[in-house]
Amino acid sequence: MPNVEKIDLGLVDSVVAESIGKPGERTFKVTAQSGRGRAVVWMEKEQLFQVALAIRQFAAATEQPSDPERYQPEMPAPPEPTDLEFRAAELSLRHDRSTDIFTVEAANVDADATKETETDDEEPAVAVQFSFSRRGGVKLSEQAIEVCAAGRPHCQLCGGPIDPEGHVCPKTNGHHKGEIKFA
Q1: Domain residue spans of the chain
Q2: What percentage of the chain reaches a pLDDT higher than 90?
Q3: Are 27 and 7 in contact (CB under 8 A)?
Q4: What's CA 61's distance to the chain center, in Å?
Q5: What is the pLDDT of residues 78-122, one digit of tens each?
Q6: DSSP string, 65-108
Q7: Where does 5-151 sit in CATH, by number?
Q8: Which pTM does this prediction carry?
Q9: Beta pairing class for 126-133 and 101-107
C-alpha cells in the first residue's frame, strides 16, 4: 500500500449525509466537522447506504453501556485544522463498546494498491477517520437512508430504477413499451 497520510478528526461536532444533483445523476457525500478540521468524503450511493444500514442494525441490536468510558482520539490532533475533500476508494465502520462510539475511516486509495500503480498527477494518498456517539450515528443513519431513498422510483417487478424517460424492465423481457389492455 502506498504511504498514506492519516488524519483523525476525533469526536465530531457534526456529521451530515447529502446528495447533489438530480435523481439518476446524483453524487453522495458525508461531511464531518470537529475542532480538528473538516472532511468531505464523496462516495457511491451503495457505500453510504451500507454504512447507514450497519449503524442502524448495530444500534438496534445492542444496548448502550450504562457507564461508557470517556472517548480518547486514537491519533494526536493535526498541527493546524485540516480541510480535506476526496472520493473514498475504501470505507470502514467500527464501534468501540467501551465508549459506545462509532468511527468511520475513509481512504482515497485502495489497501491493495501498490506504489507502481501511482502516478505523479494523482492526489496524495490520505485517510481520515472521524468518530461520533450512538445518538449521532442513529441520526446519520436516518439521514443517509432518507438521502438514498430520495432518488428515482424503483420498478415493482425488477427493483431497478425508473428513469424519467421510462424503464425497460428485464422481467417483461424488455419488450413492453405501452400500457397493457385487457379484453
Answers
A1: 5-151, 154-183
A2: 63
A3: no
A4: 21
A5: 999 999 999 999 999 999 999 999 999 999 987 665 554 444 456
A6: PSSPPPP--SSPPPSS-EEEEEE-SEEEEEEETTTTEEEEEEES
A7: 3.30.2450
A8: 0.78
A9: antiparallel
